[in-house]
Structure formats: structure tokens, C-alpha cells
Design goal:
Elements (H helix, E strand, L loop, with lengths): L1 H10 L22 H14 L3 H15 L26 H4 L2 H15 L6 H9 L5 H5 L1 H11 L2 E6 L2 E6 L2 E4 L2 E2 L6 E8 L2 E6 L4 E5 L2 E6 L7 E4 L5 E6 L5 E5 L1 H4 L15 E2 L8 E2 L7 E8 L5 E7 L2 E6 L2 E7 L6 E4 L5 E7 L2 E5 L3 E8 L1 E6 L5 E4 L5 E4 L1
Parallel strand pairs: 8-12
Antiparallel strand pairs: 1-2, 2-3, 3-4, 5-6, 6-7, 7-8, 9-10, 10-11, 11-13, 14-15, 15-16, 16-17, 18-19, 19-20, 20-21, 22-23, 23-24
Helix pairs in contact: 2-3, 2-5, 2-8, 3-5, 3-6, 3-8, 5-6
Length: about 400
């Protein structure tokens, strides 16, 4: 009975959610957060929701927050869906967890769905908005974000553009997989391609087959070739910690000289426990880390922690910049210095003494920086452009 009462309180609350926060002090970005749409999408997939329920989630996310994890809103509204702690959606820290918030939305959407409801009206049945029509009006934007949730990149290595499109990894348009499982940005180390699935598993393409090497990730992997010829794998885990996996290829019995193939033969389950080694506290980071290996065998790790850009060498994290809202990308220049780029409000920026904008074109996801100073980024329409 208590559970039923909670459901009724949520569905018929007299305090409706509004279309974007009316609080003028609550800044809502004009573009969505690429990591937020991936998480919402992954939660929907993990729950096996219908296409209509998934679309309802994306319509609601756009109308309420432009698909950003807002720390403000009307009254006590918070997060992607502007859920209110006072209305039983959860504690503030729970609502600010995108996975939790999405899970709550989908839980109630499934319960109240009826055949006669459009995706927008279903979103309103959960949100109890002042403006029910606005959700269906956002259908075009929601569908665009859904397409992007299956996409990621670019990762440009030796001039070859790697992206994820419609759930598969492509290299210069050549399809390297056919499973439809992948999301986010792939990572290339030597002759190996790493990519993650919506369920948080990292797979590597080696000897023409995709093999599972790790699990439990919340962001895109970063694979780098180390001075000793082995590959190091880095990622942000589900608990928000940055972690590394030494010699992931050795875990599956692959040598660093094994050739890359383009034949999809499915994931080969890895029965060994993933040996992630945390290099930061839990709750520290989000998105994709960027790693620079140095000739002496050390590495420098760059990661986004809130709106701070943090860097660690020898295990010590230091703040080097603020104002970031996307994952960093570091590149080692020929002179031994490091260039750091990121997207701020969707625009490409380079770090000098401060963040220097490099044009007005809006991009999504992450950027791929090259040693010669050129940078690749992807537009919302999926086109990869080069700057610099």
C-alpha cells in the first residue's frame, strides 16, 4: 500500500514539472550533454523498455533540462528530469545520479503507458507538466539525440577516422562490427580497436574477432601503447573512479603484434575477473579520460571532475583549469609539450593560459587532437570536421 501511495503521489502531484526551469538563476545549456544521453539510453536498454518509452524519456529530458544534469530548478527540482525530492523521487544526491534518475523515469513510464498515448503524452503522464503538448513538439530533437546516443567519436589515428554509428564501429566508413552493441567513442592503440557497449563492457578487435576485456565502465575507454610495447586501458568506472587495466591484451592471450581484422565474429566472453586498478577516489570523474604516455614509462592522466580539469602524474591529482563541460583530449606535441583541447558549450577550445575558443561551430561528444595541432570533432548531424 505504501508503494502504491508513492506512485499515486508522484503521478497526481499538485506541483507539476515545468517545461525548462522557470528559475531564471538556473542556467540551462543550449545543447545537450552527450554523456547524459548515453547514460539515459543505456538505462533504457538495460531495462528493455519499448521504443515509445525510450522516446518519451528523451522528449522529457529535452523539455525539462535540454538533457543536462542540472543542479538547480524550480523549487527543489533537480537533474535531467527535474525530479523533486519533496515529491518522493529520491534524495537530492540520488536524483543527481543520472542512472538513478533515468531508472525512476522509465520505471513509472512503463507503469502508466497505454496504447493510446503518444510518446509525448506518456512523458507528461510521468512528469505531470503544465504544458503537455511540449513533449511531442520535441520529438525531432529527441529522435536526433537517440541517433546520437548510438554514436560517438571521432578517434583519428594516422588519418583514419574511427566512429561509432548505429551501434557499430566504423573506420573511414568501413564497418568493423555488425553486432549493433557499441556506444560512444572507440579508442585505437597500435593495431587494436577498443570500444564499449551500452552495458559497460569494453571489447577489443583482435585477430578479426571482438573479445571482451573489461566490464563496469561508465565512460568511453582510453587505450594507449606504452613504451614497453604493452597496451594500457583507462576508463571511468560506474562508481565514478578513474581506473587503469594493465595489459588487457595479455588477459585474452593476445600479443601486441597480432594483426587487426575487420571480420565481426561476436564477443568472446572473458571469464577472468576484471583487474581494474583505481587511480582516483570514487565519484571523482565523468566521461572519458585522456592519457599521455611518456618515454620514461610514466603517464599523465587528464579527466573532467565536475567543471574542473584535473591531471595526475605518479598518482597525484592537480587542478589545471576550470569551466569544462566535456571530456578533455590531450596530445603530445613533437617538442614534448602537451596540448589540451575540449568542448565548452559545444565549441572547440584549446588550453593556453586560459581556455581559448577555436571557432563558433558547435560539436558534440569528444574531440580528437593530433600532435601537429589539428583537431577533429563531430557535429550533431554526424559529420566529422577538422580544425587547425
Amino acid at each position: 500500500m505504501l508503494r502504491l501511495a508513492l506512485v499515486l503521489a508522484l503521478l497526481f502531484s499538485a506541483s507539476p514539472a515545468h517545461a525548462l526551469p522557470l528559475n531564471v538563476l538556473c542556467r540551462v545549456p543550449g545543447v545537450h550533454d552527450a554523456e547524459v544521453i548515453r547514460v539515459v539510453h543505456a538505462v533504457g536498454l538495460s531495462r528493455g523498455v519499448s521504443d515509445k518509452v525510450m522516446l518519451a524519456g528523451f522528449e522529457a529530458g529535452w523539455v525539462e533540462s535540454h538533457m543536462n544534469n542540472l543542479s538547480c530548478g524550480d523549487a527543489d527540482s533537480l537533474g535531467v528530469f527535474q525530479q523533486r525530492p519533496s515529491m518522493g523521487w529520491g534524495a537530492p544526491e540520488q536524483i543527481m545520479d543520472v542512472s538513478y534518475a533515468a531508472g525512476r523515469f522509465f520505471e513509472y513510464a512503463v507503469r502508466v503507458d497505454r496504447p493510446e498515448l503518444s510518446a509525448g503524452l506518456l512523458a507528461d503522464a510521468v512528469q505531470r507538466s503544465c504544458c503537455p503538448e511540449r513533449y511531442d513538439q520535441a520529438v525531432g530533437r529527441a529522435q536526433s539525440m537517440l541517433r546520437q546516443a548510438w554514436q560517438g567519436g571521432p578517434e583519428v589515428v594516422a588519418g583514419v577516422v574511427h566512429v561509432v554509428e548505429d551501434g557499430d564501429v566504423l573506420a573511414d566508413g568501413t564497418r568493423l562490427s555488425t553486432s549493433g552493441d557499441f556506444v560512444g567513442r572507440p579508442s585505437v592503440a597500435g593495431r587494436f580497436v577498443f570500444a564499449r557497449t551500452a552495458r559497460g563492457e569494453v571489447r577489443v578487435l583482435a585477430d578479426g574477432a571482438w573479445r571482451a576485456v573489461a566490464s563496469g565502465v561508465a565512460g568511453d575507454p582510453e587505450a594507449v601503447t606504452l613504451p614497453d610495447g604493452t597496451v594500457g586501458l583507462y576508463a571511468v568506472l560506474a562508481d565514478g573512479s578513474v581506473a587503469k587495466l594493465s595489459d588487457p591484451l595479455g588477459m585474452i592471450g593476445m600479443g601486441a603484434g597480432s594483426p587487426q581484422g575487420a571480420r565481426e565474429s561476436g564477443s568472446i566472453p572473458n571469464e577472468r575477473a576484471t583487474n581494474w586498478q583505481p587511480v582516483s577516489p570514487a565519484g571523482f570523474a565523468a566521461g572519458k579520460p585522456s592519457v599521455i604516455p611518456h618515454p620514461d614509462g610514466s603517464v599523465t592522466i587528464y579527466a573532467r571532475s565536475g567543471h574542473k580539469l584535473m591531471a595526475a602524474t605518479a598518482g597525484t591529482w592537480n587542478e589545471i583549469a576550470r569551466g569544462v563541460d566535456a571530456s578533455p583530449e590531450a596530445a603530445l606535441r613533437p617538442d614534448g609539450t602537451v596540448a589540451v583541447h575540449t568542448l565548452i558549450d559545444g565549441r572547440l577550445h584549446r588550453l593556453t593560459t586560459t581556455w581559448e575558443p577555436l571557432g563558433d561551430i558547435r560539436f558534440i561528444d569528444t574531440v580528437s587532437a593530433q600532435p601537429d595541432g589539428t583537431v577533429y570533432a563531430r557535429t550533431a548531424e554526424g559529420k566529422v570536421l577538422k580544425a587547425g
